[in-house]
Amino acid sequence: MSTILDAESTTSPSLVRRAGLFLVCLMISFAPGIVGSRFSPGPWYDRIEKSSLTPPGWVFPIAWSALYLLMGISLFLFVLGTTRRVRTVGLAWSGVQLMLNAAWSWIFFGLERPDLALLEIGVLWLAILGTLIVFWRQRPAAGALLVPYLAWVSFASYLNFEICRLN
């Protein structure tokens, strides 16, 4: 697999290896969603006050599935188009934002702590921005695919803030 990731390599990865790498990138990008799905809204969430802009519950799995797909494609494009040194930096940023993404669901729904989740989502937003910048500098398309993710987390930050303010 290392030859797939080495942009310095003189041989081009085969279609099968690229497909394998693509699937790995998708699995990695969907991992926070799998973790987060273990912490679903409970009765406490139904009882708290929310912003009038809060979408119906069915919107969230659709939105997140689309975002995780875009994140996986972005990661794939980035990995294919970078040198080892740059790739290491981008993968570090990406790994941090993915862990923070998974942690938000645990904090918000699992611990039922919207206040701590609000702090955490601010750090998540910065990590997404860092990932987007690193990806964009190397592969603009990879960075552009993260813009909807940053926009959605911006909206989610507002919703989280409103829950804290209203409750």
Quick gist of this model?
The protein is mainly alpha-helical and 167 residues long.
Relative strand content: under 5%
Which structural class do the helices and strands define?
mainly alpha
Largest pleated sheet: none
User: How many runs of DSSP E, i.e. beta strands?
Assistant: 0
Task: Tag the structure with descriptive keywords.
single chain, 167 residues, mainly alpha, 78% helix, elongated
Please, could you describe this protein's structure?
The protein is an all-alpha fold and 167 residues long. The chain is 78% helix and 0% strand. It is built from eight helices and no strands. The chain has helices spanning 2-5, 15-36, 43-47, 59-80, 84-110, 114-138, 140-144, 147-166. α2 packs parallel to α5 (84-110).
Secondary structure: elements and pairs:
Elements: H1 2-5, H2 15-36, H3 43-47, H4 59-80, H5 84-110, H6 114-138, H7 140-144, H8 147-166
Helix pairs in contact: 2-4, 2-5, 5-6, 6-8
